[in-house]
Design a protein that fits this description.
Elements (H helix, E strand, L loop, with lengths): L1 E7 L4 H5 L12 H13 L7 E4 L3 H11 L6 E3 L16 H7 L1 H9 L12 H18 L4 E6 L1 H12 L13 E7 L2 E9 L9 H9 L8 E4 L4 H5 L10 E7 L2 E8 L4 E6 L8 H15 L4 E7 L3 H9 L3 E6 L2 E7 L7
Parallel strand pairs: 1-4, 2-3, 2-4
Antiparallel strand pairs: 1-5, 5-6, 7-8, 8-9, 9-10, 11-13, 12-13
């Protein structure tokens, strides 16, 4: 009998920036690093013979919880990658809620019917996952394996292998499932267990409050227009060469974010919309745009007297690297580390 632990990756940028990241290669968040540490403690006394992961960074980084402390090599298999969502890659959920609500509902609740331009269909991604997992099980009789993968492809694969309803497989970040394989059949021992996570670091627990808001949390972005200056005056201050987006909640403009070629210029959210994690989405719009432009490290300054802003950027993973006048200087790595 072969035993296989299936583990979803730790919290990553798409989770907090509220963007659809299928095969978009994203980084793990600071909270995700806490989840990885908790996962390492969970597996500390458990024997594992081999570790596999998809070749995307968020699974490779999460797999460090097991393969590094146990002195094992990490084996990469792109068949464990997340579904490729085609033209939807890196789009804000708020934009999809606004422009393609029926298709977005199908993506979450009826993936066999879901279709987006250039996207991988359900049968393709669920079959590649199931085939890869069966191949590993057949090739490793009597061994215990760990496989690091992604939420949607895991859901599709387990639907195909175990007949689980699609809505039954909503895995928390770093949630663990255990399957046994014998005589050509997979059997679940347990599914989607996140007991190693405290309420403070569980992604699902941290999202409960805003999920109750329905469609009143996810933002979408449009290019700024001259008339927007009056809307945000007197705080409006993007430079002539800046790229500026207006953050919208439904039809309502709630803030803006500007970048220069060198990095972040301005991020601002109306006071009544603060402390709802919407600022994360504004920052994500800027950071991921600059990554696409080839910027490897984002550097910016924040007034040292603004303790709220300092805490906000630290929460996003920016590191303070010094001071300059009345500002604290921050650095955030945007580049995706390559596989070793």
């Amino acid at each position: 009998m072969t035993r296989i632990y299936l583990i979803r990756h730790a919290e990553a940028e798409g989770n907090i920036y509220r963007r659809l990241h299928g095969q978009y290669d994203s980084r793990v968040t600071p909270n995700g690093l806490l989840q990885i540490a908790a996962l390492e403690r969970r597996f500390e006394g458990l024997p594992i013979d081999a570790v596999w992961a998809s070749d995307l960074y968020r699974t490779r980084r999460t797999a460090e919880a097991i393969y590094r402390p146990k002195g094992l090599p990490l084996r990469l298999d792109p068949r464990f990658r997340e579904v490729h969502v085609g033209a939807w890659e890196d789009l804000p959920f708020g934009l999809l809620e606004r422009t393609e609500p029926e298709a977005l509902h199908a993506f979450a609740h009826d993936p066999e019917a879901w279709l987006a331009p250039g996207a991988e269909r359900y049968e393709a991604y669920s079959s590649r996952f199931a085939a890869a997992l069966t191949e590993l099980a057949e090739a490793n009789p009597g061994k215990t394996l760990a496989v690091f993968t992604h939420g949607c492809v895991l859901s599709g694969g387990l639907h195909k292998l175990l007949g689980l309803p699609h809505d039954a497989s909503r895995a928390d970040n770093t949630a663990v499932s255990l399957l046994e394989y014998e005589d050509g059949v997979f059997s679940p021992v347990f599914l989607f267990d996140n007991s190693h996570l405290s309420e403070a670091i569980s992604t699902q627990a941290r999202q409960r409050w805003w999920r109750k808001l329905g469609g009143k949390f996810n933002l979408w972005f449009r290019d700024a227009e001259p008339a927007d200056a009056a809307r945000f005056d007197p705080l409006w201050a993007p430079g002539a060469g800046d790229r500026t987006w207006i953050a919208c909640l439904g039809d309502e403009a709630v803030g803006y974010v500007s970048v220069t070629e060198q990095g972040l210029s301005t991020i601002w959210l109306r006071p009544e919309f603060r402390h709802r994690r919407m600022g994360d989405q504004l920052f994500g719009q800027a950071a991921l745009f600059l990554r696409r432009r080839g910027l490897e490290t984002l550097r910016f300054g924040v007034p040292t007297a603004n303790s709220e802003a300092l805490a906000f950027f630290s929460h996003l993973g920016a590191e303070p690297v010094g001071t300059e006048g009345a500002c604290t200087l921050f650095r955030l790595r945007l580049a995706i580390p390559k596989a070793e």
